């Protein structure tokens, strides 16, 4: 776990060795402490360099260890950092590539820190529901001051070496491996006193307006992830570094760390961390998988259709340094898109500069705007982002088939349409794949990658690799109407409309679901996205509009309950924010501040009267359960149909594309925590009361899991009937 060697006659080297990321376990801590003691007592050793094997310093504590629990007599990370700091011999941290979490805390215990140019630093514990429990909340503010330390610790963001040097976190940076430079530094400082380098002996630098600053900072932290404990606990620990002496600050840090360690939120956030990694590992029934199939290089891509989605996709590709041909149907739309993309890239350039990275959009020849389909003949990938209309999509793919080189991949950015139908019009269905981006596409992490029946494993590997290059989270799912995300969403929104009919209000439901943890409630989301989007889709499906057969009962389709409420709003041109009114009222078209709208409440009353519905008071419990359990129920159905490979994939989709509160793990994790028997019983109750709502009928797979004694979530995929497993 920790090697002890000589780097120079008077310099000992302690190398952390736990491949691939040198994560810190109990065993590693013991080994480190032994080697630090060995160096301390060896009179021939005058200085020590601590580094990591495998080209990495350390990714911090082994997160898997937290779920097992930390044993009482476990050596604490802080005690090892303190052992290093107290040494009379100078310790130099030679940081290669990463120093995260406990890894950075160990480095903060060292007297000097040197890193390579590529290195990144961070205390990301907040993201896994914890706080830096190895002295980081006390040492970092003393080193770099409250504002930056607070920002790093409460957001968990990573800073690059150049910025770390400016902040004073590092003493030196070098181009390549910092090991040799660390040995040189260690020799240079031999004999110099280490006392002034001990962070525990320093005061946290004062700010003239410390109290006001902290007050503002706390408000910001509370807004960051409403309902999530760890950001505020991180704040409290850092605040202690201002008001308490070091030893007391450490006690406070430990007290808060232990409080978080056993919390449900930490469990959920750590689950989410691993869920994202598990769900990237796609595998097909024929054995092809992320391990065995190589991606093809995408040297040049094209995007067709430069509306909001297309623009975001172009920006994402450029940010990944992939040359893009951006194509529109006419000059006017091309010019609008050109301006919007340029402005967006300029904002991105600024943001990246602030992060110490570069994106030189001016010098680069990454973008080519055109009206000419001929410009697509040499691209390796096309992502089509035209309107959500099957006829238009098929026309586009027919053209692409003729123009693009045979090996080019053809992606379609659709949120629900049939990939196989689109592929069927092409001369290369094996190269056709769904690439469902989320709006705004240059910001949102998720891409649902939809496998059609002919999509080749190479196409999947290529798009998964592209997602990685764009710093996005690609999840492979099967082809069905709405795929995974929108299928779950439609069960949830359907309930919100029914509850509205029965007596609730947009304000009430938004409040309840925002308190649950969604950034925005369903009606605010609908106003933001535009009600017309769903309306067009329902018209296309023949659920409303001119294609609806005469005599169809207004609140029934195919014998099932249907709510025409959103359709009626659209018929009244209430599309949401863009028209200044939707479920709420805005001060002008494009306005963002939602106000309660007397028109809507009046309309709802009249609607209920017209349909002979008695308005009833609905409890918060019923609102939450009907909305969330119907969504989760669809998740079980999706698993049983083999549309998603595992519950982790569904959760990752919901966390990255639909605003599910991360500290609640994801819908399937949430279901497992609530308890499957309770979910089943409640669904049965609601289904009995609403026999015309099939989405409330418990999924047979949920029933099977309950019959089997509610096995842990990780076992669910193995219980799906093998005939259904497609992924
Ligand atoms: C007994 C000790 C008590 C100590 C108590 C003191 C408390 C200390 C707090 C901490 O240090 S908490 C940990 C803080 N560190 C992190 O949160 C880092 C998390 N990791 C990352 O951000 C990324 O993994 C990375 C380091 C940036 C690397 O990213 P990359 O995309 O290159 O690879 P991944 O696919 O993410 O990871 C590869 C592989 O490694 C697993 N892994 C990564 N970090 C950890 C970790 N800290 N603990 C356990 N496992 C980790 C990851 O799950 C992947 O595993 P797989 O099986 O190959 O999918």
TrEMBL record:
Similarity field: In the N-terminal section; belongs to the enoyl-CoA hydratase/isomerase family.
Name this polypeptide is given: Peroxisomal bifunctional enzyme
Pathway per the UniProt entry: Lipid metabolism; fatty acid beta-oxidation
Subunit details: Monomer.
EC numbers on record: 1.1.1.35, 4.2.1.17, 5.3.3.8
Keywords from the UniProt entry: Fatty acid metabolism, Isomerase, Lipid metabolism, Lyase, Multifunctional enzyme, NAD, Oxidoreductase, Peroxisome
Residue stretches making up the 3-hydroxyacyl-CoA dehydrogenase C-terminal domain: 482-586, 623-711
GO terms (BP aspect): fatty acid beta-oxidation
Record lineage: Eukaryota, Metazoa, Chordata, Craniata, Vertebrata
All copies of domain 3-hydroxyacyl-CoA dehydrogenase NAD binding, residue ranges: 300-479
GO cellular component, one term: peroxisome
Location(s) in or outside the cell: Peroxisome
Listed GO MF terms: (3S)-3-hydroxyacyl-CoA dehydrogenase (NAD+) activity; delta(3)-delta(2)-enoyl-CoA isomerase activity; enoyl-CoA hydratase activity; NAD+ binding
Catalysed transformations (reactions): (3S)-hydroxyhexadecanoyl-CoA + NAD(+) = 3-oxohexadecanoyl-CoA + NADH + H(+); (3E,5Z)-tetradecadienoyl-CoA = (2E,5Z)-tetradecadienoyl-CoA; (2S,3S)-3-hydroxy-2-methylbutanoyl-CoA = (2E)-2-methylbut-2-enoyl-CoA + H2O; (3S)-hydroxyhexanoyl-CoA = (2E)-hexenoyl-CoA + H2O
Entry annotated with the keyword Membrane: no
Alphabetical list of PANTHER family matching this protein: 3-HYDROXYACYL-COA DEHYROGENASE, PEROXISOMAL BIFUNCTIONAL ENZYME
């Amino acid at each position: 776990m920790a090697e002890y060697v000589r780097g120079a006659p008077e310099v000992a080297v302690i190398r952390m060795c736990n491949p691939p990321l040198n994560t810190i376990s109990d065993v590693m801590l013991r080994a480190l402490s032994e080697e630090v003691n060995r160096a301390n007592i060896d009179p021939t050793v005058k200085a020590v360099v601590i580094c990591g094997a495998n080209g990495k310093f350390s990714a911090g504590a082994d997160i898997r260890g937290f779920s097992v629990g930390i044993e009482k007599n476990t050596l604490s990370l802080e005690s090892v950092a303190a052992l290093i700091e107290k040494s009379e011999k100078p310790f130099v941290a030679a940081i290669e590539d990463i120093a995260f979490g406990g890894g950075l805390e160990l480095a903060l215990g060292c007297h000097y820190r040197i890193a390579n140019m590529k290195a990144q630093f961070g205390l990301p514990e907040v993201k896994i529901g914890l706080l830096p429990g190895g002295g980081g909340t006390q040492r970092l503010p003393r080193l770099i001051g409250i504002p930056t330390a607070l920002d790093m610790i409460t957001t968990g963001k990573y800073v690059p070496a150049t910025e770390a040097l400016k902040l004073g976190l590092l003493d030196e940076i070098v181009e390549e491996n910092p090991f040799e430079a660390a040995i040189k530094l260690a020799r240079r400082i031999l004999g110099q006193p280490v006392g002034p380098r001990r962070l525990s002996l320093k005061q946290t630098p004062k700010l003239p307006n410390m109290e006001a600053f902290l007050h503002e900072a706390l408000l910001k932290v509370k807004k960051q992830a409403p309902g999530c404990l760890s950001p505020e606990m991180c704040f409290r620990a850092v605040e202690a570094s201002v008001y308490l002496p070091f030893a007391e600050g450490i006690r406070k840090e430990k007290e808060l760390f232990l409080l978080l360690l056993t919390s449900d939120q930490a469990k959920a956030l750590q689950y989410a961390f691993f869920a994202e990694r598990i769900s990237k590992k796609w595998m097909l029934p024929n054995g092809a998988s992320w391990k065995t199939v190589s991606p093809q290089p995408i040297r040049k891509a094209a995007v067709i259709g430069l509306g909001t989605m297309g623009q975001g996709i172009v920006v994402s590709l450029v940010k990944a340094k992939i040359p893009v041909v951006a194509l529109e149907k006419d000059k006017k739309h091309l010019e609008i898109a050109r301006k919007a993309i340029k402005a967006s890239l300029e904002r991105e350039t600024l943001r990246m500069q602030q992060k110490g990275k570069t994106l030189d959009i001016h010098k680069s020849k990454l973008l080519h705007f055109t009206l000419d389909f001929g410009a697509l003949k040499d691209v390796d990938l096309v992502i089509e982002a035209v309107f959500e209309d099957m006829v238009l999509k098929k026309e586009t793919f027919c053209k692409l088939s003729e123009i693009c080189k045979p090996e080019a991949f053809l992606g379609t950015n659709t949120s629900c349409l049939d990939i196989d139908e689109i592929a069927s019009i092409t001369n290369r269905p094996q190269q056709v794949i769904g690439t469902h981006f989320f709006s705004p596409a240059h910001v949102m992490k998720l891409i649902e990658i939809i496998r059609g029946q002919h999509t080749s494993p190479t196409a999947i590997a290529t798009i998964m690799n592209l997602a990685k290059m764009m710093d996005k989270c690609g999840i492979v799912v099967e082809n069905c109407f709405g795929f995974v995300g929108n299928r779950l969403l439609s069960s949830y929104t359907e309930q919100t409309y029914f509850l509205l009919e029965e007596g609730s209000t947009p304000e009430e439901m938004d409040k309840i679901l925002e308190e649950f943890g969604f950034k925005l409630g369903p009606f605010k989301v609908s106003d933001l996205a535009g009600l017309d989007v769903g309306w067009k889709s329902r018209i296309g499906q023949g659920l409303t509009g001119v294609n609806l057969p005469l005599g169809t009962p207004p609140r029934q389709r195919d014998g099932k309950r249907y709510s025409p409420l959103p359709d009626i709003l659209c018929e009244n041109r209430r599309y949401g924010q863009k028209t200044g009114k939707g479920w709420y009222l805005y001060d002008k078209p494009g306005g963002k501040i939602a106000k309660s709208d007397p028109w809507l409440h009046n309309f709802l009353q009249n609607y209920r009267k017209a349909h002979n519905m008695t308005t009833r008071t609905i409890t918060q419990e019923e609102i939450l359960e009907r909305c969330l359990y119907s969504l989760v129920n669809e998740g079980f159905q999706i698993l049983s149909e083999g549309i998603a490979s595992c519950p982790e994939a569904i959760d990752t989709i919901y966390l990255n594309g639909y605003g599910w509160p991360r500290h609640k793990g994801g819908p399937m994790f949430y279901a497992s925590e609530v308890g499957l028997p309770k979910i089943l019983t409640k669904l049965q109750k609601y289904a009995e009361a609403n026999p015309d709502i099939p989405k409330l009928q418990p999924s047979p797979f949920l029933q099977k899991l309950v019959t089997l004694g509610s096995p842990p979530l990780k076992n669910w995929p193995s219980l799906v009937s093998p005939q259904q497993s497609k992924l």
